[in-house]
What we know:
This protein is an alpha+beta fold. The protein has helices spanning 39-49, 130-143, 145-154, 160-170, 175-183, 186-206; strands at residues 14-21, 31-36, 54-59, 76-87, 93-110, 114-120.
Amino acid sequence: MASALPQGGAPSHLLLPVLPLRDVCLFPEASLTVGLERPGVFEALELAERSEKQLVAVAQIDPSADLPDTTGIHTVGTLAHLVTFTRDSETEGRAELNGLRRGRVVTLLGTSTMVAEVEPLDEGDPGDEWGPAVEALARYIHAHSELKDFLDSQQRSHEPMAWVNLACQHLPITATARQKLLAADALERCLKISRGLDALLRKEQVS
Length: 207
């Protein structure tokens, strides 16, 4: 296992255990706590604990699948740090993850426990588009005051893109839309989230 996630320059491929996620994505600079019920997932997390607590979290294509095969997960996921892993019983547990950066699965191996060769992905330059995205988030938060305290509690970085990623992680959008945002680079993600949040707010105001 690689000892550190590469930052900048030509990306190096990493060999990491895979955590398949149901109906949710993990974004860079966001945190996620997931309930666990599958033995293969426990084994992947135990493997991560032995390899500097690094893994790749990838959404399942079919969230109802108990055991997705190598064709059953999306290509783009998030390299993550395993903060805590608690096994409550033989069949139940919890894991807390911190998203680090996006990664593309190049090769996937295994069945019940999967290991992936992952290419870290650069976010790219959001240009000036992060401004409208953060402004759209501010408008949405203004209409949902309870959301501000929650996002403040989730904040791990003061960078503007961190707020965009938190919006992608937590706002009420479909799992399919969330995965499309994760697959997009920083510029496209900002454009999508600014348009999407304003459309969501207009829809709620009409309802």
